[in-house]
Amino acid sequence: xxxxxxxxLALIFFIGSVHAQDFQGIATYxxxxxxxxxxxxxxxxxxxxxxxxxxxKKQFEKEYTLDFNKDASLYKVVExxxxxxxxxxxxxxxxxxxxxxxxxxxxxxxxxxxxxxxxFGKTFLIKDSLPELEWTLTKETKNIGEYTCFKATRTExxxxxxxxxxxxxxxxxxxxxxxxxxxxEVTVTAxxxxxxxxxxxxxxxxxxxxxxxxxxxxxxxILCSKIVLNPKDGVKVEEPTKGKKVTQExxxxxxxxxxxxxxxxxQPDNRRGNGNSFEIRIxx
Length: 284
Known about the structure:
Helix content: 10-25%
Largest sheet: 14 strands, mixed
Order of helices and strands: HEHEEEEEEEEEEEEHE
Number of domains: 1
Number of helices: 3
CATH class: Mainly Beta
């Protein structure tokens, strides 16, 4: 039965790919993230926890556009919120995202990506090959707007890391520091439409026989809210070129060092009565 499903969907892809060169467009996506994080009441006062989680959830609510043609796509943020600060006690929240990019270029015909990210006042350009994503296709369907979508799933590892640094300001008291890290296998569910027979998708998701209109990993959801096909003025999918060129490993090391500097910056010293910093990192 599974073989029949694969053959049927492959036939859809083959037929659709004949006309794939006719498709270009702009898709708009909105993201949301459900946060199920337990904060240690000895590190974060219970009366502040609800406010902190609400602000962190808001930090992940963004809008993106995906410009695409038959070979490549450009995923870029439309609206980005500033890192929130909570008054009272100097609490600073730093949210390090799971590989989210300001501009993400994917060329599926050449199997490569370019990720431009502006962070801490500097621009970085990460170039890498596209990872191989092993999707399981199903016959399950649903409609998203005017498009009939098929369901596909895959599994991936997810890491959640929370670091904290607090001092209640008492003389002689040592800073309370710690890091909580968990890694788990999660199921990623995608809904794609063969009516737009291109293997593009939001973020780093791609490789299905149709444009991905919705994707969720149980925590984050990305939903397409608008599609404009073959606009009159055409679509330009230009690979980003500006920024300091680094590898993914180099970028991760830079991020780690910057987060350490941020924690140290908000660490209380002898001139400050008290202060707190709190960091949530999702994805490594």
